[in-house]
Structures are given as C-alpha cells and as structure tokens.
Write a structure and sequence with these properties.
Layout: H1 7-21, H2 28-35, H3 39-51, E1 55-58, E2 63-66, H4 68-79, H5 82-98, E3 101-108, E4 111-118, E5 133-135, H6 140-148, H7 151-157, H8 177-190, E6 193-196, E7 203-211, E8 217-226, H9 235-254
Helix pairs in contact: 1-3, 2-3, 5-9, 6-8
Length: about 260
Amino acid sequence: MTEPKVPAADQTLRILTLLARSRGPVPASIIATQLGLPRSTAYQLLATLQEHGYVMHLAEEKRYGLGIAAVELSSAYERQEPIARLGRPLLAALVDRVRVSGHLAVPSGRDVLYVIEERAQGAPSLVTDVDVRLPMHLTASGRAILAKLPRAQVRALYPNAQSFAHRLAGPDGVNRYSRLRAVLDDTTTRGFALERGSVTEGLSSVASPVLDHRGWPIAAVAVTFSDEEHGEGEFATLASDVREVANALSARIHGRATPESS
C-alpha cells in the first residue's frame, strides 16, 4: 500500500526541483503559479528554505535561487560515490553470470572516466582500470552515452577535426564528426554500443547507457571480451545482459523503474 504524501515535504521538494531546473533565480509569484501553490504557502516555504540555506533571496531582484546548502548536497553526492556504490554489486553479478570483464564509466568532457572494473576470473588486465580516462568516441561506454545525447550536444563536444586529434582513430576510423555520427546512428538502430579493437587490438566491448530521472545519460555499463572467444553472434546476447544491468542501475539511482533503453 502506498504511503500518503506529506504535503509540505512534497511542496518543498517541488520548489527545490523547479529552482534547480531554472536558468536563474525565479520570482516567488512564478514559483507559486507554476507549482499551483497559494502565494502565502510559497512564501512560507521559501522563507523556511532560506533560513536553512537551501534557498537565497535576491532582494533587489525580488527573486529566489538555490542556496549554499543545496550546493553542498551536490558535493556530498559526489563524495559518497553513489553511482559506484550502487553499481558495484550489479556489475559483479553480471560478470559472474556472463564470465567476461565488466566496467562502469561516467562522462568527463570528451572522455569517459572508469569508476568500476570487475575482472572475470582468469581474464587479462584491461586498460579500462579504475580512474583511467579514454576518449569517449573510441569506447563502447562513450558511444552508449553519446548516442543518448541530443545531436546538438554531440556536435558541440566535437566542433572540428582537432576534437578527435588527441588519439588516432581505431580500426573503425572515427576521426571526424560525420563518421562519429554514423557510428552513433548505428548504435541507436542496433540497440547497444559496440567497439571492436579501437581501444585494445583483439578485444571488443558492448555497452548500454545508465539514465537519470530525465532520461539523460550519466554513465554506461559495458563488458569487454576477446574476439577469439566471443564472435559477432554473441554480441546481442551479451548486450541484453548489459542493458538489464544498466536499467537496474538507472532505477536504483532515481528510485523507480525505468523503461527499456534502446
């Protein structure tokens, strides 16, 4: 049975969410209107949030924005490494099940940063170790993330040829935007990201994105395997297992079930 909501708590969280998603500070009247709150209620809640530092009042502008305490929450979230903590048991179970090495990576500029590596028993060490950064466009994890971003966002990340210059292209020739766009379109059509030998010759990876409550890609789950041991006929099966874990981690992060990612 679903527990009833606490109105004040629900309204307070809605105010914080609205402020977090706004481009700048917002007048109290607009907050009340957008959330369907009486103005007196909006002012009372804003005053309480201001008292505790979660909201700041810009008196000259007659607007409200997020306060220092809200920023501290974001820093605390990063310090506690929630994605890694939530993802580690899921990834360990995946590796035990499919018997190939797996990892979790998060975006960092035009790179991916690896935050978890679970090595399968007897598998060789990989370059995708914890705290290693690799170019996003060359990795399955990075391609899974990029394929979920708006096209304009991807184009902004790769505005010119120099964006690809920090590492030579792999065997699939991703060294310009048009080629990257084709790879990302193939990723969307296929339903999972794929990389073959771009990072390490003889090794391939498949990956699926981890999405937040807005459907924005915040990480990717991937497995890496030897081309000699796993042929193309196994890619879709491995990718299905990876997608299941990515969806489970997405649900854990924002506390509810997530639709199947494509």
